[in-house]
Design a protein that fits this description.
Layout (H helix, E strand, L loop, with lengths): L3 E4 L1 H14 L4 H16 L9 H11 L9 E6 L2 E5 L5 H19 L1 E10 L5 H8 L4 E5 L21 E7 L2 E8 L6 H10 L8 E2 L5 E2 L2 H6 L1 E2 L5 H13 L9 H8 L7 E9 L1 H5 L3 H17 L7 H13 L1 E4 H9 L3
Parallel strand pairs: 3-4
Antiparallel strand pairs: 1-12, 2-3, 4-11, 5-6, 5-11, 6-7, 8-9, 8-10
Helix pairs in contact: 1-2, 2-4
Length: 337
């Protein structure tokens, strides 16, 4: 017997919106958060789909997230914009700031946006994809809670600290990648724990600093960076440029503020947008074509080009819907009671 249930994409979005609204999220916030979860579910990233409703509702119940505040967008310099999320979830703040970020990038060639004082619960690929669909090259960085030990260490210090990149492709879906600097996303380990299966080797250590594949033990101990000292260095970079540089919290500070409540991470996000047309002028088309040649060369030799599977899954989900574990759906639907 299949322990999954098929939902249409519209049903996923409706379920997410109803759950978030039921727990007090204002309409604009509920819509923005539900859209991000729906993209994650449709793109085949189960850990970034409606599974995230469990964290969001848990965070709401702690009283540590603003439910109806309107993000404040501030134009601070020709190439800089700041968005104060006011302690709310991050998606609406990004949505409000994107038009200003894009306009500034087109005006001066490159622009940065700092989104601060927000609760993060999702992947970064929706942000850089949205930037790339504006015809811009996009980068995004954010710390989280201190769950990851530095290479050679044994205690959590860094967050999963993702890095995301988006590249516009004329007439095609953007090239996008989004990767944690940890060996896995936190949600992937939580899914292993929920489903009673071991985590892959190298994902984490227990509270005594010993290697383990026990997902619950990793949650109590520490996750590990990918690639040893290389992933650790990138995680540290993210701590600095999306923490102190934007005037917001590091991962260690975020989890200290949380004080055991189990809320979504509180902190900032740094986004960059570069306009190829400003950078290249009349030669933009020829140079973007050279970029296409590189991307095509990846695919032509049978290698995986990040984002292609995601877009294929998205189109399939639009046609056929998605299969969601029944246990997860039971847990999510119980949030409507």
């Amino acid at each position: 017997m299949d322990d999954r249930e098929r939902l249409t994409i519209d049903e996923v979005r409706d379920l997410a919106t109803r759950v978030l609204s039921r727990h007090g999220l204002a309409p604009d916030h509920a819509e923005a958060c539900a859209d991000v979860m729906t993209i994650g579910e449709g793109d085949g990233g189960g850990a970034h789909g409606i599974f995230r409703l469990l964290m969001c509702v848990s965070t709401i119940r702690t009283g540590k997230v603003a439910l109806d505040v309107e993000p404040v967008v501030r134009d601070v310099a020709p190439g800089l914009v700041k968005v104060d999320a006011g302690g709310a979830f991050a998606p609406l703040a990004f949505r409000r700031g994107l038009p200003t970020l894009a306009a500034k990038a087109r005006a001066v060639g490159i622009a940065a946006m700092a989104v601060t004082n927000c609760r993060h619960f999702a992947a970064l690929f929706p942000e850089v994809e949205a930037i790339a669909r504006e015809g811009l090259v996009g980068f995004a960085f954010t710390p989280s809670h201190a769950w990851v030990a530095p290479a050679g260490g044994s205690k959590p210090l860094f967050g999963t600290n993702p890095i995301a990149f988006g590249w516009p492709r004329p007439g095609k879906d953007p090239f996008v990648f989004d990767m944690a600097t940890s060996a896995a996303a936190r949600g992937e380990i939580e899914l292993c724990r929920r489903e009673g299966r071991p985590a892959p080797s190298g994902w984490g250590i227990d509270a005594e600093g010993k290697a383990t594949t026990d997902a619950a033990a990793i949650m109590e101990g520490a996750m590990l960076p990918f690639g040893g000292h290389k992933g650790s260095a990138l995680a540290l970079m993210v701590e600095l440029i999306a923490g102190p540089l934007v005037g917001d919290l590091t991962s260690a500070e975020s989890i200290a503020v949380d004080d055991g409540a189990g809320a979504a991470p509180l902190g900032g996000e740094l986004l960059l947008a570069i306009d190829p047309a400003r950078m290249l002028g009349d030669a933009v088309s020829s140079h973007l074509a050279r970029g296409e040649a590189v991307l095509d060369a990846v695919v032509s030799q049978g290698a995986r080009l990040p984002s292609l599977r995601r877009y294929a899954a998205r189109r399939r989900a639009e046609r056929e819907g998605v299969l969601v574990p029944r246990k997860l759906l039971d847990d999510v639907r119980a949030l409507l009671d």
